Amino acid sequence: MRTASLRAPSRFLSSLLIAALALLALPRAAQAWWDAGWTLRKSLTIDTSATGAAIADPVGGTTVLVRLHDGNFRFAAAQDGGDDLRFVAADDKTLLPYHIEKYDAVLNEAFVWVRLPDVPPGAKATFWLYYGNNGGKAAKGEDAKASYDADTVLVYHFAGHGAPPSDYSAAGNNAQTAGLPSDGSMIGGGLRFDGKSVVSIPATASLAWADGAALTWSAWVKPGTIEPSAVVFSRWDGSRAFLIGFDNGAPYVEVTGAGGTQRSAVAAKVTVNTWHHLAVTAGGGKLTLYLDGDPYATLAAAVPVLNTLCFLGGNGPGGTVGVARGQTDFTGELDELEISKVARPAGFIKFAALSQGGGDRAAKLVALGDDEQPTNWLSWLKTGYFGVIISSLTVDGWVVIGILMIMSAISWVVMINKVSYLNGISRGNALFLREWKHVATDLTVLDDANADQAKSLGGRVDAAGQKAMRSSSVYRIYHIGAEEIRLRRNAESGKKALSSRSIQAIRASLDGGLVRETQKLNRLIVLLTIAISGGPFLGLLGTVVGVMITFAAVAAAGEVNVNAIAPGIAAALLATVAGLAVAIPALFGYNYIVTRIKDATSDMHVFIDEFVTKMAEFYSGKNE
Known about the structure:
Largest sheet: 8 strands, antiparallel
Structural class: alpha+beta
Oligomer: single chain
Radius of gyration: 43 Å
Strand content: 15-25%
Mean pLDDT: 84
Low-confidence stretches: 1-30
Number of strands: 22
CATH architecture of the domain at 168-341: Sandwich
CATH class of the domain at 168-341: Mainly Beta
């Protein structure tokens, strides 16, 4: 039968519609997220494995430089000055200390130093950078003093242009003199030395060195000329001294103590006017000089007792002995000076050189992932361009969208209820028509004066089946016909034949039942047509009013600013989008439901014709 062939795909489509609605209604499961107030995050992967920076030596806890630029960071989504930056450990719970050396939202460049509790050698480690606080009022989270461990006693970024360098460590060893600033240095600002000026660092308890003390000194250095015994860092106390410099382009470390003056052996020379990471570690009666993260030279000597001023760029006033030995002041640039009171491991030195050096090697060591957003719908609505549009909506836009949301909710309720109702009719019709085929050949069951016999189709359908068939529109029409025949059979007491007028009357009753069933099927469908035709026009009205308000604001301001009017126009267009979002699903649902209604109506028409024909054939012209 035609209706039976349509029933299976109809049931499938209706189930698919209900499943789609359920998926839209349920929020997506949110993955781990440190704080819902932050709408964006990106992973930062530290890779010391063979595929990354290939650091096999232990690194330990360190402070890593994170370079941000417009290729890996959305400055427009962060707060001014980077106040909403937060760095979180791999557990997505523990905040990591950090501080910002430079944050320029105009040039889209930032240098951020983050404290990592432990960096495993030869492996990968991940932590998170969060930003995009949707409240826009996140307090500054940086803490420079906590960004370095207790063994770090001096850190100069040289970020203060023309001011004495400030110490970013907890020791507070600020410089006494400013020196010559250098813009666009290795990392942000730096110092420039002209062979005459020096920068003095005060003598403090944290910078005091005992005999044979352990220490680590590191900095980025760019020699400007080839000079004999050019001094980059010096510390003198009479006949005792500790020097770091370049001798005709070759880095050296020199110690003067009880055993006389000892200088590291000369190895390969560096190229002038290029940046190099220079580091010296002392401990265990040995000094190790590192160049660009790799061991360069060693010296079997110990650090002498020193608790005097330190000087950058030359010998300073206390270095008269050095001057007599032909030592000269340094010409070139210096950046990122760090001094610790422990001998850092080789992996620590290499990590610093690679991570701070930039370029491909730094990119392999510190890799920034793509932006991620929370996966729940509420957070998604607050992020990105959609969040900007929502925040720019005016009152009239909210009113229009509110009305459209109500219309959308009503249309969805109508569609869901109507599809559910049609599914019930389809199931009931299928059950009834399957049993009716057996009754249609012999209508004797309708002769019984007992109405229950007719309802059960002569006992073929039990009580549960009758309950299931109550949702069948065809069964309800059959019940009207059966009742009409039963009443006439009782009134005419014994006559089997029905007159033509009786058959016409019964046909009229069946047609009346058809009309009432059709009205039930079409009830509330008009709400879908209203949504289809009225939604886009209402959305267009909201858009026109929103654009009018936006241009009125431009006229009042007296100037055209694209950045100011663009969000308003985008928000105004959202009303049209909302109107289409109401109309399109309603249109699809309407067409689907109307097709199902036509099928159900056809079933009833076919059954009435068949019922009247069988009735006329069975009851015409014969008497008992």
